[in-house]
Amino acid sequence: MKQMQFHVPGYMGMHKSSESGSGENCLYQGREIGTDAVGVADSKLGSASPVVKLTPAAWTAFIGHTAS
């Protein structure tokens, strides 16, 4: 299955999060270029979506909290 991606300036590899369901409203995640920060964007606005920038530890904590 091909992973959906979109371009967000300053970020690479923005793709649909594996934590998102199969619907169209989902989160995209990728790495900020030049750092280890994780960028998270909402699919509803596509590449125009604001990006929330998280440290890898904060992203892991967020996923752990939302998965439980």
Summed up, what is this model?
By secondary structure, the protein is an alpha+beta fold.
Please, could you describe this protein's structure?
The protein is built from 1 helix and 4 strands, in the order ββββα. The chain is α+β, with helices and mostly antiparallel strands and 68 residues long. Strands 1-2-3-4 form a 4-stranded antiparallel β-sheet. A hairpin with a 5-residue loop joins β2 and β3 (38-42). It starts with 10 loop residues before the first strand and ends with a helix.
Annotation keywords:
single chain, 68 residues, 4-stranded antiparallel beta sheet, 4 strands
Shape: globular
Distance between the terminal alpha carbons, to the nearest Å?
A: 26 Å
Let me know the number of strands.
Answer: 4
The level of helicity is 10-25%
Q: How many distinct domains? A: 1
Write the layout of secondary structure elements.
Layout: E1 11-16, E2 27-32, E3 38-42, E4 52-54, H1 56-67
